[in-house]
Amino acid sequence: QVQLVESGGGLVQRGGSLRLSCAASGRTFTSDLMAWFRQAPGKEREFVAGTRYSGVRTTYYADYSDSVKGRFTISRDIAKKTVYLQMNSLEPEDTAVYYCAAGPAAPSKITSAAEYSYWGQGTQVTVSS
């Protein structure tokens, strides 16, 4: 079993920054697929960013949706079992509940929510114009 707890959401003005954190507990973290999704009111949950183990030491690959590429950065701290999402140049369109998710080390499709077995409770991010 894996427990995920997000933090770091809040209200920020357009162009501002926030860093989300997701603390994992319950089992090994090193090789798990970890990702951030978001869901805006009236919209489906969408993939934002993911980090997957390369199989070599502590090297991970990062994947991003086109809408956040160049603005958001996903990273993980193995010792703290925490994954982060640094969000810069925020826009009102980024307003959503952000969810942390954990999945298998070798996913078929990293952007699919169905790949992930564990989810956090979500944290609200609101960007004002």
Brief write-up:
It contains no helices and eleven strands. The chain is an all-beta fold and 129 residues long.
Give an account of the 3D structure.
- The protein has no helices and eleven strands.
- By secondary structure, the protein is mainly beta.
- Strands 2, 4, 5, 6, 9, 10 and 11 form a seven-stranded mixed beta sheet that branches. Strands 1-3-8-7 form a four-stranded antiparallel beta sheet, with no helix packed on it.
- The protein is globular.
- The mean pLDDT is 93.
Provide keyphrases for this structure:
129 residues; mainly beta; 7-stranded mixed beta sheet; 4-stranded antiparallel beta sheet
Biggest sheet layout: 7 strands, mixed
N/C terminus separation:
40 Å
**Which regions are unreliable across 5 or more consecutive residues at pLDDT < 50?**
none
Tally of DSSP helical segments: 0
Number of strands: 11
Mean pLDDT: 93
Radius of gyration: 14 Å
What is the overall silhouette? globular
Layout of strands and helices, then pairs:
Elements: E1 3-7, E2 10-13, E3 18-25, E4 33-39, E5 46-53, E6 60-64, E7 72-77, E8 82-87, E9 96-103, E10 118-119, E11 123-128
Parallel strand pairs: 2-11
Antiparallel strand pairs: 1-3, 3-8, 4-5, 4-9, 5-6, 7-8, 9-10, 9-11
